[in-house]
């Protein structure tokens, strides 16, 4: 039975496999926590797991625009139902996008042994720039991302799991021993259980839970991407948690201030003294008036709207949001700049660099795990490296910090004059080079032509 295009097969030939016994670590996990034969169903139903998934779903709803301000109830004003303003600020999406783009907006560079780098770059052509971006985006949004490396149509590629469908399994020794992908489609539940050496598929289509297949797994469990979480070493923490309370306050302040300004414009009519007729202030015409005695007076009283207090409070909340998210005000147009030097730009983005460095530490660790899996799959394709060769590989992030192109080119030129940098390294740092390999090939062709012309 063939499963060549199924990512769960994880093999070059797609041969269907069958296993009758469970892994020893899994069996120990089942015994320790008292699960039954369908342990993965019970595990996904645990309160701890359901609470974690609920938090992820809440984050998705928040990013789609379902904010606390939307639950603000209607009020009564001047004897009528007043529908209050519900102003939604989607700053969270912009801040999370900036954080992701700042770290991996520029392509990640691989360095090391030439043959190893060349082989991995060939694999990376299968969409890994987008995969890196999606992984970092998930980590910033939800705290975690999960990636499964496999072979499809003879090519090495990766599948990114929806964090809301992902259940990594850790035993009592805090070892990562399995992974469960659980989702429901049209009231049918599907469970894909990833063991170190196999993948099992289960579903309750037809009314009862049945195993639908078992497949070989060549490179182990899905890779876990996460950020720092002081409360849990296995799961990351969404950056949105730090932003929500500030954004809720900004939305509440802006919405209520807009309502207050509207009520301030309406005002309250006040008559002082004797009115000569019994007729009140007409409401059906514009410009109507009252007939008053000589010592009487009429005026509108308005609620006081302190514009300065509103502006000060809103600005403080905005600055707090930018500080917490390590986002320079200039990114959101909150700061006017002109004629900044390179040093000034670095100072503006110092907090962004600090946050990116911390994120880089965790992301790099996970990418290295991916590279080891790619190495394993390359071996099945007949491409092998020694440990000494492979251990030279390193991952270099190039933060998307604004910089003067003229300064970059001048610095590269000086390094070349000193003999301290190669042409390939210059091309990798040049702001005008998109394809280093193609550019190197063109340079080589031009050099060969110049040599031939010189001899002729």
| Low-confidence runs of at least 5 consecutive residues | 1-22
H and E string? HHHEEHEHHEEEEEEEEHEEHHHHEHHH
Strand ordering within the main sheet: 6-7-8-9-10
Shape: flat
Number of helices: 14
The secondary-structure class comes to alpha+beta
The count of DSSP E runs of length 2 or more, i.e. the number of strands, is 14
% residues in beta strands:
15-25%
Largest sheet: 5 strands, antiparallel
Q: Gap between N and C termini, in Å? A: 63 Å
Helical amount: 40-55%
Alpha-carbon Rg, integer: 31 Å
Short description:
The protein has 14 helices and 14 strands.
Overview of this structure, please?
With 456 residues, this protein is α+β, with helices and mostly antiparallel strands. Helices cover 44% and strands 17% of the residues. The protein contains 14 helices and 14 strands. The strands form five sheets. The chain has a five-stranded antiparallel beta sheet, with helices on one face. The chain has a three-stranded antiparallel beta sheet with strand order 5-4-11. The longest helix has 31 residues. The protein is flat and about 110 Å long.
């Amino acid at each position: 039975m063939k499963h060549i295009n199924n990512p769960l097969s994880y093999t070059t030939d797609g041969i269907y496999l069958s296993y009758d016994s469970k892994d020893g670590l899994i069996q120990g996990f089942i015994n320790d926590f008292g699960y039954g034969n369908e342990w993965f169903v019970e595990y996904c139903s645990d309160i701890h797991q359901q609470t974690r998934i609920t938090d992820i779903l809440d984050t998705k709803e928040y990013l789609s625009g379902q904010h606390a301000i939307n639950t603000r109830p209607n009020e009564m004003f001047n004897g009528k139902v007043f529908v209050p303003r519900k102003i939604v600020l989607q700053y969270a999406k912009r801040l999370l996008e900036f954080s992701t783009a700042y770290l991996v907006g520029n392509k990640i560079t691989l360095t090391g042994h030439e043959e190893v780098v060349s082989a991995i770059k060939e694999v990376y052509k299968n969409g890994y720039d987008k995969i890196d971006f999606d992984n970092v985006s998930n980590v910033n949004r939800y705290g975690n991302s999960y990636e499964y490396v496999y072979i499809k149509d003879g090519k090495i590629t990766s599948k990114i799991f929806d964090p809301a469908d992902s259940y990594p399994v850790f035993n009592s020794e805090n070892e990562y021993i399995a992974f469960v992908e659980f989702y429901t489609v049209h009231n049918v539940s599907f469970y894909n259980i990833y063991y170190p050496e196999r993948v099992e598929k289960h579903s309750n289509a037809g009314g009862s839970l049945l195993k639908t297949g078992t497949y070989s797994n060549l490179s182990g469990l899905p890779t876990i991407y996460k950020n720092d979480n002081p409360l849990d070493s296995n799961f990351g923490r969404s950056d949105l948690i730090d932003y929500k309370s500030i954004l809720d306050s900004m939305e509440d302040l802006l919405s209520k201030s807009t309502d207050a300004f509207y009520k301030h414009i309406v005002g309250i009519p006040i008559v002082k003294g004797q009115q000569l007729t019994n007729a009140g202030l007409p409401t059906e015409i514009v410009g109507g008036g009252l007939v008053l005695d000589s010592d009487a007076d009429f005026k509108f009283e308005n609620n006081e709207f302190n514009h300065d207090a509103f502006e000060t409070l809103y600005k403080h909340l905005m600055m707090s949001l930018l500080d917490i998210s390590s986002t320079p005000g200039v990114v959101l147009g909150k700061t006017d700049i002109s004629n900044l030097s390179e040093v000034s730009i670095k100072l503006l983005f110092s907090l962004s660099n600090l946050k990116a460095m911390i994120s880089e530490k965790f992301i790099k660790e996970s990418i290295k795990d991916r590279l080891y899996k790619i190495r394993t799959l390359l071996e099945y394709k007949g491409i092998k490296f020694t440990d000494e060769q492979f251990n030279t590989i390193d991952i270099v992030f190039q933060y998307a910090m604004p910089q003067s192109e003229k300064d970059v080119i001048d610095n590269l030129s000086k390094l070349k004059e000193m003999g301290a940098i190669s042409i390939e390294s210059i091309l990798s740092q040049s702001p005008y080079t998109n394809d280093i390999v193609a550019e190197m090939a063109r340079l080589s062709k031009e050099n060969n032509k110049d040599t031939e012309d010189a001899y002729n």
